[in-house]
Amino acid sequence: MDDKAIADVPVAYKKIWEATEELQFNMASDLLTGSLLKTLVASKPSGRLLELGTGTGLATSWMVDGMDEGTKLVTIDNNKVLVDIARDALQNARVEFVLADGYEWIQNYRGEKFDLIFADAIPGKYELLEETIGLVKRGGFYVIDDMLPQPNWPEGHANRVERFIEELEKRKDVLLTKLNWSTGIIIVTKLK
Length: 192
Ligand SMILES: C[S@@+](CC[C@H](N)C(=O)[O-])C[C@H]1O[C@@H](n2cnc3c(N)ncnc32)[C@H](O)[C@@H]1O
Fold this sequence. Notes:
Mean pLDDT: 97
Structural class: alpha/beta
Strand content: 15-25%
Shape: globular
Strand order of the largest sheet: 3-2-1-4-5-7-6
Helix content: 25-40%
Distance between the termini: 36 Å
Bound molecules: S-adenosylmethionine
Low-confidence stretches: none
Number of helices: 7
């Protein structure tokens, strides 16, 4: 099996990738992560989805492709240049692009919980984990990538990742599987 032979790349992906390269944005999610997200999203018909860290919309494009007509996605980033690229390329009424600080958004959100959260920014992952996991419905997924060493990791980040994984593994309200695949993925299912 060649796991990198991916035939169903989203139509919007090429345009977004070109803009991503032009910007030299070096925190982009990879194709494998995108493909996994699409498959997980499709398991949540009429679902409510949250992405923390839209970037230029690469992972967003995969999530959109996994959504049925009743599913809605909220995606958050604090960088207007990136959000504008994602919004322009995807133009989808079922996606709410929110230009906001993730710390504030997570702490102020009072709406319905989510069936799947892709946490791809510091807030919602290394910080405000408790609050963010608290936004996942019972049976819902919390998905994170970049758990394996990445070229853009700053000094000391490896220790932070190790502590974060230990913290997740101690929790009694989740089941999780660690995948040494793509950039290092953890799929977490919420039990309560
Ligand atoms: C790893 S990148 C996201 C990549 C994206 N998911 C993709 O598919 O390519 C992390 C993103 O988090 C955003 N970010 C960083 N700090 C943030 C904050 N405090 N609030 C909201 N977004 C933030 C950055 O602008 C960046 O786009």
